[in-house]
Amino acid sequence: MKEASDAATTLLLTVNTRLDAAREHDRERWDGLLADPRIAQSLPCVWVCSDFVANSCLRDPALLAALVESDRLFTRGEGDWISRELDALDCEAGETALMEALRRFRRRHTVRIAWRDIAGWADLDETLHDLSALADACIQFAQRRMYEALVARYGTPRSALTNEAQPLMILAMGKLGGGELNFSSDIDLILLYPEEGETDGARSIHNAEFFLRLAQKIVQMLSTPTVDGFVYRVDLRLRPFGDSGRVALSFDAFEDYLQQHGRDWERYAYVKARALTALEHYAALYDDVLRPFVYRRYLDFGVFESLREMKAMIAREVERRELKDNVKLGPGGIREIEF
């Protein structure tokens, strides 16, 4: 007990030392922030629990000041306000400027969400919802801006059959798909488009090439480290054929894969699939492709044996890699809860 008390005391002293140094550098701003009792009372606990929040506030005190002045730090957000705030962001059109603005936006909102969580002002449902909504907004923003940039270069991708414009559908999988993203989660995405064809610009390219380039641009926008960090680590390995498969697939190619090669674990994974873009096309894809693949017409008792085999395989891997105490994969960890 004494060791724990000593450690807590040391952490608080460190927080106070860092805060004193910040006040020396910008006393007026910090005195103003600490004049709010909600900040003064919650700051020590929040900074002790999160180096990320502490470092973000020390690096950019205006970030915390803006959250306080807007009252966003103290109130629960409603509806799609995160997405609307990002849409209204005033930034230059160049990719570098967009990357910088997106990283700062994500940092500001992550600080807000973490502060409310640690201070006890938000329950678990709010925290998971806001983290997922933030990721949704950032992905949609990157997709929209990069789509516009490629259309300006190559023209709009169109169906060879109907000549209709073709959008990119982004399926969120895993924790993001289930609306339960945590602070350190990767984002698992699958990228699809309705039909093959070509773009209608002077420098026409096939839709497959257009959406490959769009996927690369989106991943670059979200994952590339800069002086402001990155937005999210993007994982595309859940796509058909994994790393060896095409990054973006047409709906027909996606359906063919699931019918001919889809494995049991993919059936379970698609339970959490959720469309982030091209929502107008998702109902048909779900009814015609995903639902028949995930939910069989007959009762499949083989599912239970498949789940047992998958769990046993994970247990063997945990033992082989000596991950017994791993909070995600070890006994009683996150993976066992999911099973």
Summary of the model, kept short:
This protein has 339 residues and is an alpha/beta fold. Helices cover 59% and strands 7% of the residues.
List keywords for this structure.
two-stranded antiparallel ribbon, five-stranded mixed beta sheet, 339 residues, 15 helices, Beta Polymerase, domain 2, alpha/beta, single chain, 7% strand, 3 domains, Nucleotidyltransferase substrate binding subunit/domain fold
Describe the structure.
This protein is of the alpha/beta class. The protein has 3 domains: 1-122, Orthogonal Bundle (Nucleotidyltransferase substrate binding subunit/domain fold), CATH 1.10.4050; 152-295, Beta Polymerase, domain 2; 297-339. The chain contains 15 helices and 7 strands. It has helices spanning 2-25, 27-34, 37-49, 51-59, 61-69, 81-87, 95-119, 124-154, 174-177, 207-223, 251-261, 264-269, 282-294, 302-320, 334-338; strands at 157-159, 169-173, 187-193, 197-199, 234-235, 248-250, 274-275. The strands form 2 sheets. Strands 2, 3, 5, 6 and 7 form a 5-stranded mixed beta sheet that branches. Strands 1-4 form a two-stranded antiparallel sheet. The longest helix has 31 residues, at 124-154. The chain is globular and about 65 Å long. It starts with a helix and ends with a helix.
